[in-house]
Amino acid sequence: MRVVIPVFEGLTVLDAIGPYEVLRMLPGAEVVFAADAAGPVRAHSGTPVLLPDALLADVDACDVLVVPGGPGARSRTRDAALSATLRRLSSGAEWTTSVCTGALLLGAAGLLTGLRATTHWSAVDQLEAYGATYTPERVVFQGRTVTAAGVSAGIDMALALVGRIAGRTRAEAIQLAIEYDPQPPFDAGSPAKAPQAAKDLLA
C-alpha cells in the first residue's frame, strides 16, 4: 500500500502530516513524501520543513495519492508539469485525495471535472472554475476521488479512507492510537458558524 504525498514550497504542514499520521498505520503502508527537487521543503508558515523521500519524477505509481494545500498550492495551479504528474499518478491509483486547497491542484489537472468536491471555504470560486461542484461537507467521496475541507479535515478524510480500505475497526484503532477526540473550545470552524467579528479579522 504505497501512499504518495507531493510536497512543495508554501504548503500547509498539517494538510500533509495529518493524513500521514493516519495512513502510515495502514497494514503494509509505505508513505512517500515526493518533491520536484531534493532538499528541504519549506512550509508557508516559514519555519517548518519537510524532507522528501523521493523526486516526483521518479515515483512510478501509488495506491493512494494525497495532495495537500496551502498558499503554495494556489500558486502551482498553472504548473503544467505538476498537473501532468498528478494525472499520471492518479490514473493508476486506487484513491486520489486532496486536503484543503490541494483540491485546486486536482482541479487544475482536470481530475475534478463534473464531480462534487470540497476545499477550504476561501477557495470555492476557484474550485468551481475547474468544473467541480462545491459542497460544504467536511469530506466528500466521489467514486475513487476524495476531497477534504480545510486543514484539519485531512485527518477526518484519512480515517474515513482507512475505513474503506481496511475496515471500521482498523480505522477506530488508529483514531484511538492518535487520540483523535476533537473537543474544540470554540464553535467557529466554518463560515456558517463563525461570528462576524472572527470573519472580519480574516477579511
From TrEMBL:
Keywords: Lyase. The lineage of its organism: Bacteria, Bacillati, Actinomycetota, Actinomycetes, Kitasatosporales. Its EC number is 4.2.1.-. It is an enzyme of class 4 (lyase). The keyword Lyase applies. The keyword Aminoacyl-tRNA synthetase does not apply. This is DJ-1/PfpI family protein. Residues 1-162 form the DJ-1/PfpI domain. PANTHER family: ARAC-FAMILY TRANSCRIPTIONAL REGULATOR, DJ-1_PFPI DOMAIN-CONTAINING PROTEIN. GO terms for biological process: regulation of DNA-templated transcription. Signal peptide: none annotated. GO terms for molecular function: lyase activity.
